[in-house]
Fold this protein.
Amino acid sequence: MSLAVSAGTYTVDFSAYASLNLSNRDGYISIYADGVLVANSERVFGSVTNRDRIIYTQAQVITASSITIEARYRVDSAVTFTMKIRNMIITQTS
């Protein structure tokens, strides 16, 4: 999920319902600004097999030019990560 923004300071909130198909595996969500991980935005999502759970992360992004802000996920190997009802709210704060 991504959105292009112009120069400014932004608060980025991302949330979703998510589940993993295997126990003892992890999923991760993070916020990226122009392809670079925003510091301290990565959150780990531990598995409860096939049960939806709410995942959430927030970050502040400051840019002097137009960039793309996106939420990404990654998983441990051999895991299916299902995400539903995704929300990304980007608020310009200055």
